[in-house]
Amino acid sequence: MNYVDLATLKAHLGVTTTSADGLLNQAIHTASRWIDRHCGRRFHTDAGTTRIAVVPLQHRVIGDAHPGQSQLLVDDIATTTGLTVELGRAPSTWSSYTSWYADEPKPGWPITVLRGTWSGTHTRITAVWGWPAVPDEVTQAALLQAARLHQRRSSPEGIAGSADWGALRVTRIDPDVHALLSPFVLPAFA
Question: What gap in Å lies between CA 120 and CA 90, rounded to an integer?
Fold first, then answer.
């Protein structure tokens, strides 16, 4: 899924012809996948369908202030609708687990923590994975990054210039794109 559409990018760039549509679509796709890699997550679902994931409990369960409870860190889950959890040992020993609850995320954000008493070595989770909707900041970052990629053809050596400013080196990441995406970047653990 792309985070910005062709018509929006063309309006942003002031393009009125269809001659560059192929290049613009490529820039949109590249910017969208770059955002996924940069943030360490994807901001869409697979058309709202559930998918099963086997999640190892080791290194994903952390203590909790609630007695007898702990937190299971999970990848982004869009909704509790259709969400089921089973405990056991991969690949074939599973039992239904219903004594869990999802942390209430910020509005528009996915579920990233399940609370419960976790046992066994793995959990099998059936869920709609991803984000409930693409955040506006991600859409704007995709627009800016796609425009930047498209306009990069004018600065093939990484140098852009103007009569007023002279030659300038094109930075690795646009400061506005960085600022828009920074709240969504998953932290890395060493």
Answer: 9
* pLDDT for 163: 53
pTM of the model: 0.83
Task: Tell me, yes or no, whether 79 and 115 share the same domain.
Answer: yes
Reported as a single tens digit per residue, the pLDDT across 136-177 is 999 999 999 999 988 877 555 555 555 565 555 555 678 999
Closest CA to 136 of 77, 180, 187: 180
Q: Are 113 and 102 in contact (CB under 8 A)?
A: yes
What is d(CA 135, CA 164) in angstroms, rounded to the nearest whole number? Answer: 36
Note the Cα 89 to chain centre separation in Å: 29
The residue range of the domain holding 108 is 51-127
In tens, the pLDDT along 89-122 reads: 777 788 999 888 898 889 999 999 999 988 888 9
Classify residue 190: in a domain, yes or no: no
Considering its fold, how many domains does the chain have in total?
2
Q: State the Cα torsion 48-89-62-51 to the nearest 10°.
A: -10
Tell me, yes or no, whether 33 and 15 share the same domain: yes
Contacts 24+ apart (CB under 8 A), 99-106: 100/72, 102/77, 103/71
Q: Is 32 left (phi over 0), alpha (psi -120 to 50) or beta?
A: alpha
Collapse the DSSP code of 38 into the 3-class scheme (helix H, G, I; strand E, B; otherwise coil) and give the result: helix
